[in-house]
């Protein structure tokens, strides 16, 4: 089964220089029919205007992934971790037994656009940990580059998560194929451009801000279909 959630169906807020797009119930947005997809609890896209951001807040027993699309995101928490996250950077916080963390745009002139995703960890109460890596467009060009690994052994990373997250910069006309197992789900999110997804269920057009929620066994084909030359897409394979 493939279900397309369009950009227009996301819940949108704009307050104090922070523009938010929520794909699932989050904060004051409550939809009992749209609370999560597998172990993916939140999939938010934020744009922070200059000098805006989120003050420290407390979370525990979550794995929080930041993926920076534009600008520089400044991250800090009460473990002493501080980092300036630039485009192409993935930062993962396993909150474990609990941590206070904050994300801000320290620039006086440029906005920051990034994704924040929340996952259920494999087990609660772990020690707080961080993982950070940066990937170039060349590394993602016309391939599914694994950003985060899983217990399936496709990539090693400090997080105890049964999932694999991929990224691709797919040029127009280029095609990628993926076989999704019977007991798995896939969340596909287009951050820019336009892709075409083909399977036995049909052909689906997915544009920037749209997501595809895919369940059960599928032989999937992803085709770049943007008039601007390339599209950027995130794929998450999970139970």
From TrEMBL:
Domain Pirin N-terminal, chain residue ranges per copy: 12-118
Descriptive protein name: Pimeloyl-CoA dehydrogenase
Gene3D superfamilies according to UniProt: Jelly Rolls
Domain Quercetin 2,3-dioxygenase C-terminal cupin, chain residue ranges per copy: 162-238
Family per similarity comment: Belongs to the pirin family.
Organism expressing this protein natively: Paenibacillus solani
InterPro entries per record: Pirin (IPR012093), Pirin_N_dom (IPR003829), Quercetinase_C (IPR041602), RmlC-like_jellyroll (IPR014710), RmlC_Cupin_sf (IPR011051)
């Amino acid at each position: 089964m493939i279900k397309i959630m369009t950009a227009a169906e996301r819940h949108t807020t704009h307050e104090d220089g922070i523009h938010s797009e929520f794909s699932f119930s989050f904060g004051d947005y409550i939809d009992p029919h749209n609370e999560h997809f597998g172990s993916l609890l939140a999939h938010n896209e934020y744009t922070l205007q200059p000098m805006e951001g989120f003050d420290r807040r407390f979370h525990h027993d979550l794995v929080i992934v930041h993926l920076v699309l534009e600008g520089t995101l400044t991250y800090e928490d009460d473990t002493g971790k501080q980092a300036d996250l630039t485009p192409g950077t993935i930062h993962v916080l396993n909150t474990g037994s609990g941590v206070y963390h904050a994300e801000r745009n320290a620039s006086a002139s440029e906005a920051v656009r990034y994704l924040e995703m929340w996952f259920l960890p494999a087990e609660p109460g772990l020690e707080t940990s961080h993982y950070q890596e940066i990937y170039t467009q060349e590394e993602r060009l016309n391939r599914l580059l694994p950003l985060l690994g899983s217990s399936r052994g496709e990539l090693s990373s400090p997080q105890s998560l049964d999932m694999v997250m991929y990224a691709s910069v797919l040029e127009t006309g280029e095609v990628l194929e993926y076989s999704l197992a019977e007991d798995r789900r896939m969340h596909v999110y287009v951050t820019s451009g336009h892709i075409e997804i083909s399977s036995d269920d049909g052909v689906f057009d997915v544009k920037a801000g749209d997501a595809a929620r895919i369940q059960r066994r599928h032989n999937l084909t992803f085709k770049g279909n943007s008039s601007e030359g390339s599209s950027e897409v995130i794929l998450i394979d999970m139970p």
